[in-house]
Amino acid sequence: MPDLASASTSTADAAWWRDAVIYQVYPRSWADGNGDGLGDLPGITDRLPHLRDLGVDAVWLSPFYTSPQHDAGYDVADYCDVDPRFGTLADFDTLLNRAHDMGLRVIVDIVPNHSSSDHEWFQAALAAGPGSPERARYLFRDGRGPDGELPPNNWNSVFGGPGWTRVTEADGTAGQWYLHLFDVSQPDFDWTNPEVRELLLSVLAFWLDRGVDGFRIDVAHGLIKADGLPDAPDGWSESVGPTNAMPFWDQPGVHEIYRSWRELTDSYRSPSGDRILCGEAWVLPAPALARYTRPDELHQSFNFEYLMTPWRAERQRDSISRTLASAAEVGAPQTWVLSNHDVVRHASRLGFDQVADGLVRMGGIGIGDPQPDAAVGLARATAATAVMVALPGSAYLWQGEELGLPEVTDLADEVRQDPTFARSGGTDRGRDGCRVPMPWSPQGPTFGFGPDRPDAEPAWLPQPAVYGELSVAAQTGVEGSTLELYRTLLRLRRTHRLGRGTLTWLDENSPTVLCFQVDAGAGAVTVLANLGAEPVALPDGVTVLVASGPLDGGRVPTDTTVWLA
Ligand code: GLC
After folding, report:
1. Which of 57, 69, 225, 522 has its CA 20 to 30 A from that of 563?
2. How confident is the model at residue 4 (pLDDT cuts 50, 70, 90)?
3. For 282, left (φ over 0), alpha (ψ -120 to 50), or beta?
4. What are the Cα distances from residue 43, in Å, to 96, 163, 472?
């Protein structure tokens, strides 16, 4: 592996992940190298200089494995190959080497809760019939009712509709049911089966041997189901109560799995860097989530509570303090995230009124729905990012947020592809609005997402006109652009080593102002964010290092964050 150690300050030690900025690339939507309308690995390789220039430490690639793409690749048919739509294993190796040459680490997505129904194991399970060892790799059960015509329990799919589907047996009779917490094409594995454990360990080893720097673990809190698959309590919603009140989330048995994974990644440790595990665990409350990052488990887990916290000073302060405290208890670094491929982009989410109570996990937005205020949303989004990337720990960015891309809220029903839309009967618009392909240039049929050739296909989701104005080329070198703001923030974060710093709340805090100092011995930085309606005077004698928006003389306007020295 090339000399990553000399690439940047934060990669100068094995524990690079403790303060890394990690950028999520969605292969379908980042860059289409061959003009088929879908992004691909060669497209990503060509565009890596954007990430180097942005100043991130690592890239996380959403799935690019062989898949029928019923859930955009989170339905994996072969964990150890690249889907031809995205390229080849050789293309992956090229991407990895090029990224390493630029000092960028590469994390890949692992989907252990379920496979695709196209996976050879599931096809074998269907063929082999009830009671077979093939069926025992998944969660097949007989139905309830006199003829087994009712699902085995009351679990629903996260995407809407029942969580069970009945199969037709080889002799043509209605047969057993299998569990799928997500789409019908995503059967859940039975993680009590040692064969499943071995399969996924061998998949991790396959990618570690190829040189990846770590894994983002899909649905990390879902692998183990409560014994006997009992009915779920009525009236439960994802935003209230401890997650493990549901018999399929956050069950104690998951931790043993991650201990075995950590043993494996630790066996690949080298002075040039740890190989890391980051869990996608939608787990509340914070101490339950912290259990995933005990010293012998995952290195990191996403902090979705922070993502769901409204833009209200007291709520933000509370969320940040709670995160710092619970992470400190297990000695793990905090992580921070505001957007990803499953949620409404924060430039739009924050363009709505911010509720005082509760957490906000918003479904997609469509035609006829209440629309966000774009200007307010962008001001708050950049102010929120300027808070986030100053916080100690590691920060995750979602592709396009560095351009201030809004959620696309006017996609026609016919173009929507997220299974959530169809499975919920259209009541949930789904996640397509945040997945619309990246704009790289102000002109061209796909704003540079694909090649500008007459035979090139349109982008797989249509891009709105505003994406051209917000493209990478349109913002590069433009003072005051969101892209240049992100570059400046990440540069200053690095020089002041903020990710390794200690946070202290300052006296300027108020019901509408967040104010803290982060100090890592490389020049302390004071961060002041104004979430109130009135401008706030800058403290005396300070130097403004960066501001998320124009200042009003010596005052910080509404929805603006400044970094001060
Ligand atoms: C995770 C992914 C999401 C996917 C789901 C099922 O939540 O982030 O995109 O649909 O798991 O794999």
Report:
1. 57
2. low
3. beta
4. 13, 36, 15
User: Residue 9 and residue 110: Cα distance in Å, rounded?
Assistant: 28
pLDDT number for residue 240: 52
Portions of the chain given CATH number 2.60.40.1180: 501-564
Of 211, 210, 167, 173, residue with least CA distance to 187 = 167
User: Active site residue: 71, 213, 218, 305, which one?
Assistant: 218
> What pLDDT digit, counting tens, does each position of 362-395 carry?
889 999 999 999 999 999 999 999 999 999 999 9
CA atoms within 13 A on the CB side of 347: 21
Confidence of residue 358 (pLDDT cuts 50, 70, 90): confident
Yes or no: is domain 9-114+194-487 CATH 3.30.200.20?
no
What pLDDT does residue 449 have?
Answer: 98
The alpha carbon of 113 and the centre of ligand 1 are apart by a number of angstroms equal to 10
CATH superfamily of the 120-179 domain: Oligo-1,6-glucosidase; Domain 2 (3.90.400.10)
Burial class (CB in 10 A: 0-12, 13-18, 19+), 541: exposed
* Residue 75 alpha carbon, nearest atom of ligand 1: 12
Phi and psi for 359 in degrees, rounded to 5? Answer: -110, 155
**Active site (annotated) includes residue 57:** no
Ligand 1 close to Cβ of residue 342 (< 6 A): yes
Distance 183 CA to ligand 1 centre (A): 10
Can you tell me which atom of ligand 1 is nearest the CA of 342? 9
> Chain-centre distance of CA 258, in angstroms?
19
Q: For residues 315-341, b (16+ Cβ closer than 10 Å) or e, as one string?
A: bbbebbebbbebbeeeebbbbbbbbbb
User: Is residue 407 within 6 Å of ligand 1 at its C-beta?
Assistant: no
| Residue 183 CA, closest ligand 1 atom number | 6
Domain 501-564 belongs to what architecture? Sandwich (2.60)
**Contacts of residue 52, Cβ cutoff 8 Å, sequence gap at least 6:** 102, 103, 104
Three-state DSSP state, 290? helix
The residues of the chain that CATH labels 3.20.20.80 are: 9-114+194-487
Choose which residue among 62, 74, 113 to substitute to test ligand 1 binding: the one with the highest number of ligand atoms within 8 A of its C-beta.
Answer: 74
Over residues 278-299, the pLDDT tens digits come to 999 999 888 899 999 999 999 9
Partner residues linked to 58 by β-bridges: 22, 105
Q: Is the pLDDT of residue 12 over 70?
A: no
- The alpha carbon of 279 and the centre of ligand 1 are apart by a number of angstroms equal to 12
Number of CB atoms found within 10 A of residue 522's CB: 14
Catalytic residue among 183, 280, 407, 432: 280
CA of 66 relative to ligand 1 center, distance in Å? 16
HEC readout, 176-223: EEEECCCCCCCCEECCCCHHHHHHHHHHHHHHHHHCCCEEEECCCCCC
Measured from the Cα of 340, ligand 1's closest atom is 8
What is d(CA 109, CA 530) in angstroms, rounded to the nearest whole number? Answer: 36
Q: Is the beta carbon of 219 within 6 A of some atom in ligand 1?
A: yes
Q: Six-digit token pair at 85? A: 């739509």
Is 190 assigned a catalytic role?
Answer: no
